[in-house]
């Protein structure tokens, strides 16, 4: 398949170097974004505002954390947003030792392996949805569980077991996405399920109240394969949420979008059986009012006849655009570091786009894309990590934008081997100015203690500093790999 984008290549350049050579371009490029006539969008209510104070909060899953002397029991650390953004307003830790949270702290539970956020009971407060794929179920089997922890004005108040694996190694909760998939007004949870040699994407429908049916319904399944990432979005424009997921196995791989019909049947609305990936993001990248899908770190299926992204050295991002009155599958583009529009140069193993998050930084109706690559080298520092701020100029065009590392001007710290900046990315209006900011994880920072880099929207002021939030600054104990898991 040939992309509609221009495939002109240029000679490889040096890797991202110290002194932040691209930083000035980044600030100017972001601050001067234009929607090309798109009307300004109303700032959306944060989906991760657990105390409903108007500031988005950041949930960091730390599945490798020690809790009560139990190694790798795991917890979720919630960094509170506020007028000064992240890191200045404290944090709280939620684990299975927290009053009202279901389960018991046990070594190896990995509570916090996946974390999502949504108002799951409609009370106006965002809630935590947390996966613990190695948690024992009621029968004592390591089958995995998914818990909902309720937000409130005074913090977190109890929880609810939303899904409980039935068989050993069921791995419930390793992947999560929330949305109203059956369009009944209640939030639902999409998750992974495993049994013997098969794996599936399943949905646990809402409501999440005592006595509500806890059965899950199968969306898609595979033999000797399984899902690797998923995201929710309204890709067919019907007002309800759909599920996009990528899967991989011994002889199959691909990316699929499924929509639930009124009959209860799950139908495929878009499919790319020729490629899989490690990250997905939903956003309106061309500002036409329809949902698009970004597919990160595209890898071709060797069994397929062709691929969307022929040029994928070091990783590529496939952007599939929606169109009014229909679903995905119209114009598309492939973006890599091989072109002059993207900072850095393409080298094998970079994993460009391995993590993705969408945000509309200036509320002009056109989303931008934050792309992380934790395996990217910075100078001679292997796996130091980098992230990009990418924009689209219209359907079918390559994304463009410069790169940031810890050696860029204004970014806290110094790029060191193994920091893995870009291992996770997310967005939210953490300082409450109506413009979304973004956060980037670096779980290898400080000898694998980890940290999160908080970047304010550049329109907040000239060259805003990118500051770090670390377990040491927050007074956390038992943390390991902080920043590897960030909630949407």
UniProtKB/TrEMBL annotation:
Domain of life per record: Bacteria
Species this chain originates from: Streptomyces rectiviolaceus
Keywords, ordered alphabetically: Glycoprotein, Hydrolase, Repeat, Signal
Coiled-coil segments: none
Signal peptide, first to last residue: 1-40
SUPFAM superfamilies noted in UniProt: Integrin alpha N-terminal domain
Protein's name in the database: FG-GAP repeat protein
PROSITE patterns linked to this entry: FG_GAP
Pfam families according to UniProt: FG-GAP
């Amino acid at each position: 398949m040939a992309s509609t984008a221009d495939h002109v290549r240029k000679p490889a350049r040096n890797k991202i170097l110290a002194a932040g050579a691209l930083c000035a371009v980044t600030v100017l490029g972001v601050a001067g974004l234009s929607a090309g006539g798109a009307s300004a969008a109303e700032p959306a209510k944060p989906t991760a505002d657990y105390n409903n104070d108007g500031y988005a909060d950041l949930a960091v899953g730390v599945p490798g954390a020690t809790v009560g002397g139990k190694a790798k029991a795991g917890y979720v650390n919630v960094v509170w947003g506020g007028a000064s953004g992240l890191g200045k307003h404290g944090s709280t830790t939620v684990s299975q030792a927290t009053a009202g949270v279901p389960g018991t702290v046990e070594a190896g539970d990995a509570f916090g392996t996946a974390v999502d956020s949504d108002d799951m009971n409609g009370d106006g407060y965002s809630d935590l949805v947390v996966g613990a794929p190695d948690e024992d179920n009621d029968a004592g089997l390591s089958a995995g569980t998914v818990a909902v922890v309720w937000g409130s004005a005074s913090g977190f108040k109890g929880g609810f077991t939303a899904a409980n694996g039935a068989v050993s190694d069921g791995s419930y909760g390793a992947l999560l996405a929330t949305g109203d998939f059956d369009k009944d007004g209640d939030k639902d949870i999409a998750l992974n399920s495993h049994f013997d040699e098969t794996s599936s994407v399943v949905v646990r429908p809402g409501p999440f109240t005592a006595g509500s049916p806890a059965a899950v319904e199968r969306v898609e399944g595979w033999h000797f394969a399984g899902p690797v990432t998923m995201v929710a979005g309204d890709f067919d424009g019907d007002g309800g949420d759909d599920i996009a997921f990528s899967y991989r196995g011994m002889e199959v791989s691909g990316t699929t979008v499924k929509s639930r019909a009124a009959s209860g049947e799950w139908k495929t609305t878009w499919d790319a059986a020729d490629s899989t990936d490690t990250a997905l993001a939903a956003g309106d990248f061309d500002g036409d009012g329809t949902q698009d899908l970004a597919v990160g770190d595209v890898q071709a299926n060797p069994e397929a006849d062709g691929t969307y992204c022929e040029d994928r050295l070091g990783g590529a991002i496939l952007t599939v655009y929606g169109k009014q009155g229909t679903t995905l599958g119209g114009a598309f583009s492939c973006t890599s570091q091989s072109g002059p529009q993207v900072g850095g140069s393409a080298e094998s193993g970079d994993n460009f786009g391995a993590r993705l998050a969408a945000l509309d930084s200036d509320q002009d109706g056109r989303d931008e894309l934050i792309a992380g690559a934790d395996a990217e080298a910075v100078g001679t520092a292997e796996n130091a990590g980098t992230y990009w701020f990418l924009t689209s100029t219209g359907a079918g065009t390559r994304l463009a934008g410069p790169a940031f590392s810890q050696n860029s001007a204004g970014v806290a710290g110094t790029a060191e081997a193994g920091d893995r900046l870009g291992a996770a990315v997310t967005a939210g209006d953490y300082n409450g100015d109506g413009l979304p900011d973004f956060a980037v994880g670096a779980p290898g920072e400080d000898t694998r203690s980890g940290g999160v880099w908080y970047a304010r929207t550049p329109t907040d002021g000239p060259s805003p500093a990118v500051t770090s939030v670390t377990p040491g600054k927050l007074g956390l104990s038992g943390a390991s790999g902080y920043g590897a898991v960030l909630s949407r």
